[in-house]
Design brief:
alpha/beta; Rossmann fold; seven-stranded parallel β-sheet; 7 strands
């Protein structure tokens, strides 16, 4: 049975929180009594999210950050340390994909995907765990990955490569944490089709996004948020390591 009371008044950072999965996660965690820090590039959307959380009695802080910029990431964590002492729960949700051939693709887009999906995730994880270890707290790091970490789709070679990297980083971090006898937990969640802005960005087509999400009932951002609530609410001796989620009718 999920028990979120241990996290009340502790601090969660949700990256990529301006829409979709990140937004749903922020709302869920705030409703459970966590202090929620939301970051993304779209500052106006973050401010609207904070207003919604505060109107429901929650505590939230918006920090604009471009996760392709190391200085923005470091400044983000300094703000959190100043305001709340540090991160207890990190939700590495920020990420994006573009359909780019490995034979003819735009290497600038490859680099951006690697920068956000892999390097920014690793840097945020390092800084969050610094906070957890400094304060001797049994925190939790959750990566929002993708079913593309487990198979490759047409045109998604580089995007899949970034998500395969997240699988490797998840297992490597688990082993490093066990190696130092830490109670910090690490979880990766790999959703299939979720109705967000992702498909429109990936295909650069509203019509293709409509086709992806209209063929059957797909996952909603709140489904991922519910799963995170379950993961965080597990007893300390239970670690959900790698969760795969698909719509019931998704075949790939």
């Amino acid at each position: 049975m999920s028990d979120m009371t241990r996290w009340k008044e502790r601090t969660a950072l949700v990256t990529g929180a301006s829409s979709g999965i990140g937004r749903a996660i922020a709302l869920e965690l705030a409703a459970r009594g966590l202090n929620v820090v939301v970051c993304a590039r779209r500052e106006e959307r973050l401010r609207e999210l904070v207003k919604e959380i505060e109107a429901d009695g929650g505590t939230a802080l918006a920090v604009r950050a471009d996760l392709c910029k190391d200085d923005d990431i470091m400044a983000l964590f300094e703000v959190i340390r100043d305001q709340f002492g540090g991160v207890d729960v990190l939700i590495n949700n920020a990420g994006f994909g573009k359909s780019e051939s490995l034979l003819t693709g735009d290497h600038h887009r490859w680099r951006s995907m690697l920068g956000v999906n892999v390097l920014a995730l690793a840097i945020c994880t390092r800084e969050a765990i610094k906070d957890m270890r400094r304060r001797d707290v049994d925190g939790h790091v959750i990566h929002i990955s993708s079913m593309s970490a487990h198979r490759v789709s047409e045109g998604g070679g580089m995007y899949s490569a970034t998500k395969f990297a997240v699988r490797s980083l998840t297992e490597s971090l688990r082993r490093e944490l066990r190696g130092i006898d830490s109670d910090i937990r690490i979880t990766s969640i790999s959703p299939g089709y979720v109705e967000t802005e992702f498909a429109k960005v990936f295909h650069e087509s509203t019509e293709k996004a409509r086709q992806n999400y209209g063929q059957y009932k797909v996952l909603q951002p709140e489904d991922i948020a519910d799963t995170i609530r379950h993961v965080l609410g597990a007893p300390q001796h239970v670690q959900y390591h790698d969760i795969l989620m698909r719509p019931t009718r998704q075949d790939n």
